[in-house]
Amino acid sequence: MQKKYYLTTPLYYVNSNPHIGHAYTTMAADILARHLRATQRPVFLQTGTDEHGSNIEKTAAEKNIPPKQWCDDISDNFRTLWKTLGINYDYFIRTTDKQHEEAVQAVFEKLIKTGDIYKSEYEGLYCKSCEAFYTESELQDGKCPVHHRPVEAIKEESYFFRLSKYQDPLLKYYEEHPDFLSPSYRAREIINFVKAGLTDLSVSRTKVAWGIQVKSDPAHTVYVWFDALLNYITGRGYNPDHISEEFKEYWPADLHLVGKEIFRFHGVIWPAMLMALGLELPKKVYAHGWWTVNGDKMSKSTGNFIRAEDVVADYGLDAFRYFTFREVTFGQDGDFSMEAFRRRYNSDLANDLGNLFSRIINLVNRNLDERLPEDPSSKTYAEFAALTDKINRSIEDLQFSDALETIWNAISTLNKIVAEKKPWEMAKKDPEALPGFLNEMVWCLRLIAGWIEPFMPATSASMKVHLGAKKAVSEGEKIQPLFPRKAENRPEGK
Ligand code: MSP
Using 50, 70 and 90 to split pLDDT, how confident is the model at 378? Predict the structure, then answer.
């Protein structure tokens, strides 16, 4: 049996509700998973929520809600959003799941036994928002490099993970597996960080009550990152005390998709933890860039914030999925503005694809009888069919915008052909040639409907219905546009 392609998203913190940033990683995972399923590859997509730690404890306390109830509510909101966004995930893990908590405890005890975790005292500079310690040299203007907030000097008894021991094995692994850290332009920074020297990592807290207790020393709770990273194996049935058969079907993971700010956790700490457990490393960790909104960091407090739900309600899910993966190369940073969104919506979707499609389908309904010719042979069709491999490769390399660009170039080729041949005149001037021409167009559109399926599942399905051999629309009736045009300067929500 072919091994399942196992891919994951990060587990999202439940201290606030999801935004387009979270939606982005999850949709990327869904696009790849849909593509692989369509090519008959068994796939397993895991996502979930990261629910422990002082940030969540504090947020819940501020709202006067017990932490577990808070987690239940926000975790639910993530699942609701994934439904709205058409995410076909296979498993949703929560770090408060009993099975996960027990496995984390067992891992901790195992590593205490092997000596990879030991007890000592920690003194360091801590960013509460990252839930991470920084060295003096990592700070920017004396502040956390991610949140630009002051860090705190903290001293406490702590368990440590012997990260330093894995410096050389990690460097060797990076060298022997050049695709492990991707894209390569983001890998350099990680490799240099490891080369500069790794220090052991504090992996327990005595001050955080909302966490998984260390079994042999209940005054300590497990550091959230140590807890959360383990989800990738605990969610697939791993527990060091009883490694299940199921786990072997999934591990090693084929791909961890992460944002660039957590690449280091996934490229350094996580592989070192796996080495300590004697497990194989994932095949690839891919870090994508960050979205700004209207040129600025997304922020609830300044209102510079776009909710995925609102865009979907207004423009439809497929337009949202299309824009986010067409606008920016997956890997690089990008900017989300409704102005840019509307522009692409009207030009790429309403015009290029939508108009082409309704023109052809209306002509087909008017001029062909119920049976469409079966034979796809034509020069354009052959050229189009040859693009399938290229598109597949782009998706498998996570170059989503390249795939969409290839598809939209093909759409524009069809539009040019239609403009030249003027099939609406052909009906009068050269009726013999019309069925052959429409046949060619239908076959090319069928290919396009197949190509866009992972990105725009509903549009693809609706195109396929109309492109089927049966008449989907009765005589004289016009089909509904795939993407109704929207006024360029319309206020949102209208
Ligand atoms: N809980 C940790 C991850 C633990 S994984 C074992 C975490 N959670 S998070 O809620 O902050 O979500 C982080 C992820 O959300 C990022 O890695 C990225 O995938 C996505 N994004 C959050 N904001 C983003 C943008 N502004 N732009 C793009 N993606 C961003 O970190």
Answer: confident
Instruction: With a cut of 80, say whether residue 373 has pLDDT above it.
Output: no
Q: What is the pTM of this model?
A: 0.93
Q: Which residue matches tokens 């690089």?
A: 332
Catalytic site residue from 63, 113, 147, 242: 147
* Among 259-273, 435-449, 471-485, the range of highest mean pLDDT: 259-273
**Which of 17, 19, 50, 263 is the pocket-test mutation for ligand 1 (most atoms within 8 Å of CB)?**
50
Rounded mean pLDDT, 91-107 = 98
- pLDDT band with cut points at 50, 70 and 90 for residue 291: very high
Q: Is 331 near ligand 1, meaning CB less than 6 Å away?
A: no
Is the beta carbon of 298 within 6 A of some atom in ligand 1? yes
The pLDDT assigned to 475 comes to 53
CATH topology of domain 337-466: Isoleucyl-tRNA Synthetase; Domain 1 (1.10.730)
pLDDT at position 478 over 80: no
- Kindly list the domain boundaries of the chain, sorted by start residue: 337-466
pLDDT of amino acid 489: 65
Q: How far is the CA of 343 from the centre of ligand 1 (A)?
A: 28
Q: 144, 266, 444, 466: which one is catalytic? A: 144
Residue 130 is among the residues annotated as catalytic for this protein: yes
Residue among 22, 256, 266, 466 flagged as catalytic: 22
pLDDT band at 469 (very low <50, low <70, confident <90, very high): very low
Atom of ligand 1 nearest to the CA of 262: 17
Give the residue, by CA position, lying nearest to ligand 1 atom 12.
12
Q: Can you tell me the distance from the alpha carbon of 122 to that of 333, in angstroms, rounded to the nearest whole number?
A: 35
Q: If you measure from the C-alpha of residue 483 to the centroid of ligand 1, how many angstroms do you get, rounded to a whole number?
A: 31
- CB of residue 228 inside a 6 A radius of ligand 1: yes
Ligand 1 in reach of 10 Cβ (< 6 A): yes
Is the pLDDT assigned to residue 313 strictly greater than 90?
yes
Which are the contacts of 206, defined by CB distance < 8 A and separation ≥ 6?
156, 157, 158, 219, 220, 221
